[in-house]
Amino acid sequence: MGAAAQPQDASATERSAIRKISVRLVPFVALMFFVNYLDRTAVSFAEPNGMGDDLALTAAQFGFASGVFFIGYIALEVPSNMALHRFGARRWLARIMVTWGIVSLLFTWVQNSEQLYALRFVLGIAEAGFFPGAILYLSQWVPTRHRTKILGLFYLAQPLTTVIGAPLAGLLIERHGLFGLEGWRVMFLGVSLPAIILGVVAWFYLIDRPAHAKWLTQQEKDWLEAELTAENVGKKGAGQAESHGREALRTAFTSSRVWILSLIYFGFIYGLYALAFFLPTIINGFQEDFDTNFSVMDKALITAIPYLPAAVVLFFWSRHATRHGTKVWHIAAPAVVGGLSIPLALYMDSPAATVAVITVTACSIFAALPVFWSVPSRFLTGAAAAAGIALINTMGNVAGFAAGYVTGWLKDFSGGYHLPLFLVGGFMIMSGVLMVWLSRRPGDEAARLDEPDTSPAPLAEAHR
Question: Is 60 exceeded by the pLDDT of residue 461?
């Protein structure tokens, strides 16, 4: 009886521990991500609602302002993630939030395109490392078999940022004249202060590892620590010992798998930010293209439409991958569907049809992203995971810069969004093709996506 009850007790402990992490930790980190994504994309709401006219921005200039953020981000992303691994997520993520909140607040008083470029660049430096740091932080709390679920819950913050953030931005923009500011300046003021406040709260709320969580029972702590330690022992036994410093960087930067995953991520993020930065502008163009008239709040609500279904699809897609095991098609199929759908939006004959097709693209992108992030930890651990995941995300930030600048430049060059959105579709299809190819490479760890994943949590031996 005692021997038979032990697995049942362990299962109950596992369910309880994962449930508590899902309720106590993930929503707070997701809220941080919500504010993070809102601050970096607030410029997309400001441009068609006064900022573009007040600062005399062309589409190319706005695209450059949108994208230059990622240059600063790229410059410090890998060093920032290595610092997080050294000093601990609680301190580093809190520091990042307060810093970017202060910089974001300065957008309230920007006066010309040059100041806009400079602030966007500095904002990228301030935010560097937040997203991959959050991914690593959550990964250190759960065994690999639960990671897709946890990252899926965390990733819900990104589409919900637009679902909630777009109407919020609209409400703030409609407060034109508050404190003597234009509406778009009021919006920057309103979305920046929460980052500073939340950063201070994060310093006291976040916990670096399960052993220090007072809201876990001792049995739950012991189970989590044992699982994470066993996974790392298994990885080291397979010949992938923990690496540090330069060795970790060399491991990540010389891995062909990391570089291929970087290119796959590039395609997804190019599509994500092309939509994020230019969808409000495209919707603003409906008034001329379809002879309609929308208020500021109308445009904000229309902008939010594609992202609500995307959040629902993300949740159930991640849940399916968690229950049935991550498959190659969980990543490749959305890439192809999204790549084919985005150019079709250009040939719709009404605003409703255009938004419907764009919704398919948004659903495709967000379905794949949390599942994608469960892949790197299959072959990277510890400091190498910090460096490798930061490198992959760096390529995503290169895509963020390219999506903003190239889309704006091609729009000015061609006179419309047909050429730039065909390019978006091409990059997303590239991601799907590369994922299939990677999964079929002989001897590649990623080829075992269809098999049970027993790899370690990337930061099981994080800063104590």
Answer: no
Whole-number Å distance between alpha carbons of 195 and 39: 8
Three-state SS letters, the chain: CHHHHHHHHHHHHHHHHHHHHHHHCHHHHHHHHHHHHHHHHHHHHHHHHCHHHHCCCCHHHHHHHHHHHHHHHHHHHHHHHHHHHHHCHHHHHHHHHHHHHHHHHHHHHCCCHHHHHHHHHHHHHHHCCHHHHHHHHHHCCCCHHHHHHHHHHHHCHHHHHHHHHHHHHHHHHCCCCHHHCCHHHHHHHHHHHHHHHHHHHHHHHCCCCHHHCCCCCHHHHHHHHHHHHHHHHHHHHCCCCCCCHHHHHHHHHCCHHHHHHHHHHHHHHHHHHHHHHHHHHHHHCHHHHCCCCCCHHHHHHHHHCCHHHHHHHHHHHHHHHHHHCCCCHHHHHHHHHHHHHHHHHHHCCCHHHHHHHHHHHHHHHHHHHHHHCCCHHHCCCHHHHHHHHHHHHHHHHHHHHHHHHHHHHHHHHHCCCHHHHHHHHHHHHHHHHHHHHHHCCCCCHHHHCCCCCCCCCCCCCCCC
* 53-65: pLDDT as tens digits: 999 999 889 889 9
Please classify residue 340 by burial: count the beta carbons closer than 10 Å to its beta carbon, then call 0-12 exposed, 13-18 middle and 19+ buried: middle
- Each domain of the chain, given as residue ranges in start order, spans 16-206+246-448
| CATH, domain 16-206+246-448, list 3.40.1260.10, 3.40.50.720, 1.20.1250.20, 3.80.30.20 | 1.20.1250.20
pLDDT digits (tens, 9 = 90+) for 119-131: 999 999 998 888 8
